[in-house]
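Office hours follow-up: a student asked to see two folded examples consecutively, so here they are.
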Amino acid sequence: MRPVSIETDVTKHAEGSCMIRVGDTHVLCTASLEPRVPPFLKGAGLGWVTAEYGMLPRSTSSRMRREATAGKQGGRTVEIQRLIGRSLRAGVDRVALGERQITVDCDVIQADGGTRCAAITGGWVALRLAVNKLMKAGDIISDPLVEPVAAVSCGIYAGQPVLDLDYPEDSEAGVDGNFIMTGNMRLIEVQMSAEGATYSRDQMNQLMDLAEKGVSELMAAQKAAIDA
């Protein structure tokens, strides 16, 4: 793993917030509580966790145009925020959460590979802090967060399995993947693809082993940040 740091309570207004830094990838994550749920859940007694994701114009080596100026989100953005939302929901007891929504916003300040993984890992910390406020206020009785959630990238670079790819590694990797897991190492989602090379079952198993190692380290960093 690249050096990982998670700084909590970095914004004034959000119920939960953190800045996660994984190497030179820095993502601001905030969690906002709302006393409502989407229309399709109204009256169902279930809560909802959703996410939004974006990259600042100079988070990359050359300026990116803001998606707002184009009038719509790009396909990559939509795909990533859906991934973040369903990943975080995998660790939530939505009955215990009650009929309320928590929106987790993930804004990439600086990108150097693995932004979606950092967003999921930091997003869970922001979610945890927001839920802690709900519990402290007595608004919910039992903890709705049943498992921590974290994500890491792995790939095959120069013929070798590599954990936590930075941008140069990611851009040249023959195989790369994102692994999202719960605290008991159960898989939420695996995104793996080969480009310019194929991979074997043994190589996939090697990457899985690396991912478990990385997720364990990320969850230790999550716990340390929340307990600080």
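And the second, which I mentioned at the end of office hours:
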Amino acid sequence: MATMKLQNINKVYPSGVQAVFDFNIDIKDGEFIVLVGPSGCGKSTTLRMIAGLEEISSGDLILDDKRVNDLAPKDRDISMVFQNYALYAHMTVYHNMAFSLVLRKEHSDVIHERVMWAADILGLTPYLNRKPANLSGGQRQRVAVGRSIVRNPKVFLFDEPLSNLDAKLRGVMRKELKLLHTRLGSTMIYVTHDQIEALTLADRIVVMSQGYVQQIGTPTEIYTNPANLFVANFIGTPPMNIFETKLSEAFELTIGDTLVEIKDKNIQSKLKSYLGKEIVIGIRPEHVLIDNDDQKRIGVRSIVTNYELLGASALVHFMIAKQRVIAKVDERVLFEKNDPIVFNLNLEHTYFFDKETGKRIYIEGEV
């Protein structure tokens, strides 16, 4: 187990392209950190710099209070699990897991003890004499993890380890990795483009875009208090509904053909400097207020364009001023295509963003 600090880490390639800008984080001993973002955002490059597979252009990588920028990968006591498993096809599961210890010239009794310990944790004991070709995708991934944990490194790195698995197996492996972290108590850094993995696995999430860290926080903080429009739109399934509108001098927002008045004095005080300006508002699907159009007279009228039953919940799709909107409702609330509905903005759960910068205008709990 270990602590780690990334201080003003930058990565600039010889071509002049900068992949990572001023990355800063303090990682606690035993913490599970997930780097998440779209392809090309710099998350895997950051992981490879931590592993020593990429040179750090500037900044300091501190492992247990020691600067390790210039240490070779083998000397950092860090283990990495790759997306493609990287198993030796001619070796059995046992020898794949033992190989790194053999290279370190550990005693055979120590090697056997460590391999059997890891196999027991990962449920691989019945497969130790098989070769990778005779294993399922999930079993191969567990072997790759097992090869990593037998070394008992200070830090585990995971580079999109579940992306080659089908959806059901990914769900199973997420649970297994979370249980493994709980059992080992090790420091783990995990890279993924899948925000569901980030929300379910992480102690803290680092959201990245175009080489920059957008926000660092717990899954709850990231989901309920996104720092900017990118985080708000990237985290959450289905994504947040986004509207561009104008805040009038009378604290009114135009949604479709309807004016929505902001009466809350606290919200008014936060938005005062945006009077007369265009802003962006967001509302998550579970907070969208819709009703059948039989009795309701106040609100924005629309019609259902699609209804998706998810089991315990359902998604209702409709349009507001050429903007697609998704509402997440209880599965007992039944809608059909072309049903008339009325939409109202729930200001208690509405997010306000600066249109120019994309930054959150205010965050709940801030003074």
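Two things to take away from it. Residues 4-234 form a domain with the Rossmann fold fold (CATH 3.40.50.300). The mean pLDDT is 91.
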